[in-house]
Amino acid sequence: MARMPTLFVSHGAPTFAIEPHLAGPLLRRLGEQLPRPRAILVFSPHWMTSDVRVTTTASPDTIHDFGGFPAELYRIQYPAPGAPDVAARALEMLRADGWSASADEHRGLDHGAWVPVRHLFPGADVPVLQVSMPRTLDAEGAVRLGRTLAPLADEGVLILGSGSITHNLYEFRQDIGAAGGAYANEFVDWARDAVRRHDEKALVHYLDIAPHAQRAHPTPDHYLPLPFAFGAATAGAPVQVIDGGMTYGVLAMDAYVFGALPQGAAPA
Protein backbone atom coordinates (compact mmCIF):
# COMPACT_ATOMS: atom_id res chain seq x y z
CA MET A 1 0.00 0.00 0.00
CA ALA A 2 1.38 3.42 -0.98
CA ARG A 3 1.87 5.91 1.83
CA MET A 4 -0.95 8.43 2.20
CA PRO A 5 -0.10 12.12 2.03
CA THR A 6 -0.52 14.13 5.23
CA LEU A 7 -2.64 17.28 5.28
CA PHE A 8 -2.85 20.56 7.11
CA VAL A 9 -6.18 22.29 6.48
CA SER A 10 -7.44 25.67 7.64
CA HIS A 11 -11.03 25.25 8.78
CA GLY A 12 -11.63 28.97 9.41
CA ALA A 13 -15.00 29.90 10.91
CA PRO A 14 -17.81 27.35 11.37
CA THR A 15 -19.60 29.08 8.48
CA PHE A 16 -17.03 27.45 6.18
CA ALA A 17 -19.53 24.57 6.13
CA ILE A 18 -22.10 26.71 4.27
CA GLU A 19 -19.86 29.41 2.78
CA PRO A 20 -17.13 27.50 0.96
CA HIS A 21 -15.59 30.58 -0.72
CA LEU A 22 -12.40 29.67 -2.60
CA ALA A 23 -11.13 26.95 -0.27
CA GLY A 24 -14.15 24.63 -0.27
CA PRO A 25 -14.06 23.65 -3.96
CA LEU A 26 -10.28 23.26 -3.78
CA LEU A 27 -10.60 20.82 -0.90
CA ARG A 28 -13.30 18.89 -2.72
CA ARG A 29 -11.02 18.59 -5.74
CA LEU A 30 -8.18 17.47 -3.47
CA GLY A 31 -10.44 14.79 -1.98
CA GLU A 32 -11.08 13.50 -5.51
CA GLN A 33 -7.33 13.33 -6.20
CA LEU A 34 -6.32 11.55 -3.01
CA PRO A 35 -6.16 7.76 -2.82
CA ARG A 36 -9.21 6.54 -0.93
CA PRO A 37 -8.18 6.40 2.73
CA ARG A 38 -8.82 3.50 5.04
CA ALA A 39 -9.78 6.18 7.59
CA ILE A 40 -9.13 9.85 8.40
CA LEU A 41 -7.43 10.76 11.67
CA VAL A 42 -8.12 14.40 12.61
CA PHE A 43 -6.17 16.50 15.12
CA SER A 44 -8.35 19.51 15.97
CA PRO A 45 -8.01 22.37 18.49
CA HIS A 46 -11.68 22.01 19.37
CA TRP A 47 -11.01 18.95 21.50
CA MET A 48 -8.54 19.79 24.25
CA THR A 49 -7.87 17.38 27.12
CA SER A 50 -5.37 16.83 29.91
CA ASP A 51 -3.73 13.86 28.17
CA VAL A 52 -4.08 12.42 24.68
CA ARG A 53 -7.47 10.87 23.96
CA VAL A 54 -8.56 8.95 20.87
CA THR A 55 -12.13 8.41 19.73
CA THR A 56 -13.16 4.78 19.52
CA THR A 57 -16.77 5.69 18.69
CA ALA A 58 -18.29 3.43 16.02
CA SER A 59 -20.89 6.00 14.91
CA PRO A 60 -19.72 9.47 15.99
CA ASP A 61 -22.26 12.26 16.36
CA THR A 62 -21.89 15.57 14.54
CA ILE A 63 -21.05 18.11 17.26
CA HIS A 64 -22.24 21.69 16.72
CA ASP A 65 -19.77 23.22 19.14
CA PHE A 66 -20.43 26.90 18.41
CA GLY A 67 -23.09 29.51 19.05
CA GLY A 68 -24.71 32.48 17.37
CA PHE A 69 -24.52 31.24 13.78
CA PRO A 70 -27.28 30.72 11.17
CA ALA A 71 -29.80 27.97 11.93
CA GLU A 72 -28.83 26.21 8.70
CA LEU A 73 -25.46 25.37 10.22
CA TYR A 74 -27.00 23.45 13.12
CA ARG A 75 -29.04 21.24 10.80
CA ILE A 76 -25.98 19.83 9.06
CA GLN A 77 -25.11 16.24 9.88
CA TYR A 78 -21.97 14.42 8.79
CA PRO A 79 -22.75 10.75 9.46
CA ALA A 80 -19.35 9.25 8.70
CA PRO A 81 -18.61 6.01 10.56
CA GLY A 82 -15.89 5.85 13.18
CA ALA A 83 -12.76 3.71 13.01
CA PRO A 84 -12.35 1.77 16.27
CA ASP A 85 -9.70 -0.47 14.72
CA VAL A 86 -7.54 2.47 13.69
CA ALA A 87 -8.14 4.07 17.09
CA ALA A 88 -6.81 0.94 18.80
CA ARG A 89 -3.71 1.05 16.60
CA ALA A 90 -3.20 4.77 17.36
CA LEU A 91 -3.46 4.13 21.10
CA GLU A 92 -0.91 1.34 20.81
CA MET A 93 1.54 3.68 19.03
CA LEU A 94 0.99 6.53 21.48
CA ARG A 95 1.56 4.40 24.55
CA ALA A 96 4.61 2.73 23.04
CA ASP A 97 6.12 6.18 22.47
CA GLY A 98 5.53 7.31 26.04
CA TRP A 99 2.34 9.34 25.69
CA SER A 100 -0.36 9.11 28.35
CA ALA A 101 -3.24 8.09 26.08
CA SER A 102 -6.75 6.76 26.61
CA ALA A 103 -9.83 5.85 24.60
CA ASP A 104 -13.02 7.91 24.40
CA GLU A 105 -15.99 5.73 23.51
CA HIS A 106 -18.57 8.53 23.26
CA ARG A 107 -16.96 11.57 21.66
CA GLY A 108 -18.37 12.71 18.31
CA LEU A 109 -16.80 14.89 15.61
CA ASP A 110 -16.29 18.57 16.43
CA HIS A 111 -16.51 21.22 13.73
CA GLY A 112 -12.73 21.26 13.36
CA ALA A 113 -13.14 17.73 12.02
CA TRP A 114 -16.46 17.48 10.20
CA VAL A 115 -16.40 20.88 8.48
CA PRO A 116 -13.18 20.38 6.45
CA VAL A 117 -13.69 16.63 6.01
CA ARG A 118 -17.16 17.32 4.62
CA HIS A 119 -15.52 19.38 1.87
CA LEU A 120 -12.91 16.70 1.19
CA PHE A 121 -15.32 13.74 1.24
CA PRO A 122 -18.92 15.01 0.96
CA GLY A 123 -20.32 11.49 0.83
CA ALA A 124 -19.45 10.84 4.50
CA ASP A 125 -18.34 7.38 3.44
CA VAL A 126 -14.80 7.36 4.85
CA PRO A 127 -14.40 6.49 8.56
CA VAL A 128 -13.24 9.38 10.76
CA LEU A 129 -11.61 9.41 14.19
CA GLN A 130 -10.06 12.17 16.27
CA VAL A 131 -7.01 12.59 18.46
CA SER A 132 -7.29 15.26 21.14
CA MET A 133 -4.93 18.17 21.75
CA PRO A 134 -3.29 18.08 25.20
CA ARG A 135 -3.71 21.46 26.90
CA THR A 136 0.02 21.74 27.65
CA LEU A 137 1.13 20.87 24.11
CA ASP A 138 3.58 23.21 22.39
CA ALA A 139 4.84 23.27 18.80
CA GLU A 140 7.74 20.94 19.52
CA GLY A 141 5.36 18.49 21.18
CA ALA A 142 3.00 18.73 18.21
CA VAL A 143 5.79 17.66 15.86
CA ARG A 144 6.58 14.74 18.15
CA LEU A 145 2.91 13.73 18.35
CA GLY A 146 2.69 13.74 14.56
CA ARG A 147 5.81 11.60 14.31
CA THR A 148 4.39 9.10 16.77
CA LEU A 149 1.31 8.59 14.61
CA ALA A 150 3.11 8.86 11.24
CA PRO A 151 3.25 5.07 10.63
CA LEU A 152 -0.55 5.13 10.23
CA ALA A 153 -0.05 6.85 6.87
CA ASP A 154 1.71 3.69 5.68
CA GLU A 155 -1.42 1.77 6.69
CA GLY A 156 -3.79 3.82 4.52
CA VAL A 157 -4.81 6.44 7.09
CA LEU A 158 -5.09 10.08 6.04
CA ILE A 159 -3.59 12.14 8.89
CA LEU A 160 -5.11 15.61 8.95
CA GLY A 161 -4.14 18.57 11.11
CA SER A 162 -7.13 20.92 11.13
CA GLY A 163 -6.49 24.45 12.37
CA SER A 164 -6.17 27.87 10.78
CA ILE A 165 -3.04 29.39 9.34
CA THR A 166 -4.13 32.68 10.95
CA HIS A 167 -6.61 32.84 13.83
CA ASN A 168 -7.22 36.16 15.56
CA LEU A 169 -10.83 35.83 16.68
CA TYR A 170 -10.98 39.35 18.13
CA GLU A 171 -10.20 40.85 14.73
CA PHE A 172 -12.54 38.39 13.01
CA ARG A 173 -15.40 39.55 15.22
CA GLN A 174 -14.48 43.19 14.71
CA ASP A 175 -14.57 42.66 10.91
CA ILE A 176 -11.49 44.80 10.36
CA GLY A 177 -11.50 44.19 6.61
CA ALA A 178 -8.77 43.45 4.08
CA ALA A 179 -6.78 46.64 4.72
CA GLY A 180 -6.35 45.78 8.38
CA GLY A 181 -5.34 42.22 7.57
CA ALA A 182 -2.08 42.95 5.75
CA TYR A 183 -0.17 41.39 8.66
CA ALA A 184 -2.07 38.12 8.11
CA ASN A 185 -0.79 37.92 4.54
CA GLU A 186 2.78 38.40 5.81
CA PHE A 187 2.33 35.50 8.23
CA VAL A 188 0.84 33.35 5.44
CA ASP A 189 3.82 34.06 3.19
CA TRP A 190 6.20 33.11 6.02
CA ALA A 191 4.37 29.85 6.71
CA ARG A 192 4.35 28.84 3.04
CA ASP A 193 8.08 29.43 2.82
CA ALA A 194 8.76 27.52 6.04
CA VAL A 195 6.86 24.40 4.97
CA ARG A 196 8.37 24.45 1.48
CA ARG A 197 11.84 24.54 3.04
CA HIS A 198 10.92 21.81 5.55
CA ASP A 199 12.17 24.20 8.22
CA GLU A 200 11.26 22.41 11.43
CA LYS A 201 13.14 24.90 13.60
CA ALA A 202 11.13 27.79 12.17
CA LEU A 203 7.82 25.98 12.57
CA VAL A 204 8.62 25.13 16.19
CA HIS A 205 9.95 28.58 17.12
CA TYR A 206 7.36 30.52 15.11
CA LEU A 207 6.64 32.99 17.93
CA ASP A 208 10.28 34.15 17.82
CA ILE A 209 10.75 33.99 14.05
CA ALA A 210 7.53 34.57 12.11
CA PRO A 211 6.30 38.11 11.37
CA HIS A 212 3.26 39.09 13.45
CA ALA A 213 3.10 35.61 14.97
CA GLN A 214 1.51 36.72 18.25
CA ARG A 215 -1.12 38.75 16.39
CA ALA A 216 -1.85 35.96 13.90
CA HIS A 217 -2.12 33.45 16.77
CA PRO A 218 -2.92 35.07 20.14
CA THR A 219 -3.26 31.48 21.38
CA PRO A 220 -1.37 28.51 19.89
CA ASP A 221 -4.25 26.05 19.53
CA HIS A 222 -5.11 26.69 15.87
CA TYR A 223 -1.43 26.81 14.88
CA LEU A 224 -0.40 23.50 16.44
CA PRO A 225 -2.13 21.30 13.81
CA LEU A 226 0.47 22.60 11.35
CA PRO A 227 3.58 21.26 13.14
CA PHE A 228 1.54 18.13 13.90
CA ALA A 229 0.91 17.53 10.19
CA PHE A 230 4.55 18.37 9.42
CA GLY A 231 5.70 15.81 11.99
CA ALA A 232 3.40 13.13 10.58
CA ALA A 233 4.79 13.59 7.08
CA THR A 234 7.78 11.83 5.58
CA ALA A 235 10.93 13.90 6.04
CA GLY A 236 11.58 15.94 2.92
CA ALA A 237 8.26 14.99 1.33
CA PRO A 238 7.14 17.28 -1.51
CA VAL A 239 4.83 20.04 -0.32
CA GLN A 240 1.88 21.43 -2.24
CA VAL A 241 0.41 24.73 -1.06
CA ILE A 242 -3.30 25.20 -1.72
CA ASP A 243 -4.16 28.90 -1.64
CA GLY A 244 -7.60 29.06 -0.04
CA GLY A 245 -7.73 32.84 0.06
CA MET A 246 -8.39 35.17 2.98
CA THR A 247 -11.86 35.26 4.56
CA TYR A 248 -13.19 38.07 6.76
CA GLY A 249 -10.00 40.02 6.15
CA VAL A 250 -7.89 38.05 8.65
CA LEU A 251 -8.70 34.31 8.48
CA ALA A 252 -6.39 32.68 5.93
CA MET A 253 -7.64 29.41 4.46
CA ASP A 254 -4.45 27.79 3.15
CA ALA A 255 -4.03 24.04 3.10
CA TYR A 256 -0.79 22.06 2.68
CA VAL A 257 -0.33 18.60 1.20
CA PHE A 258 2.78 16.82 2.49
CA GLY A 259 3.59 13.99 0.10
CA ALA A 260 3.02 13.21 -3.53
CA LEU A 261 -0.43 12.83 -5.01
CA PRO A 262 -1.06 9.90 -7.37
CA GLN A 263 0.60 10.18 -10.76
CA GLY A 264 -1.63 12.12 -13.13
CA ALA A 265 -3.43 14.09 -10.44
CA ALA A 266 -3.31 17.75 -11.38
CA PRO A 267 -2.41 20.28 -8.66
CA ALA A 268 -5.44 21.72 -6.90
UniProtKB/TrEMBL annotation:
Transmembrane segments: none
Pfam families: LigB
Classification via SUPFAM superfamilies: LigB-like
InterPro entries assigned: Extradiol_dOase_DODA, Xdiol_dOase_suB
Record CDD domains: 45_DOPA_Dioxygenase
Extradiol ring-cleavage dioxygenase class III enzyme subunit B domain boundaries: 26-235
Keyword Metal-binding: yes
Swiss-Prot/TrEMBL cofactor(s): Zn(2+)
Family, per entry: Belongs to the DODA-type extradiol aromatic ring-opening dioxygenase family.
Molecular functions per Gene Ontology: ferrous iron binding; oxidoreductase activity, acting on single donors with incorporation of molecular oxygen, incorporation of two atoms of oxygen; zinc ion binding
Keyword annotations of the record: Dioxygenase, Metal-binding, Oxidoreductase, Zinc
Lineage: Bacteria, Pseudomonadati, Pseudomonadota, Betaproteobacteria, Burkholderiales
Entry protein name: Dioxygenase
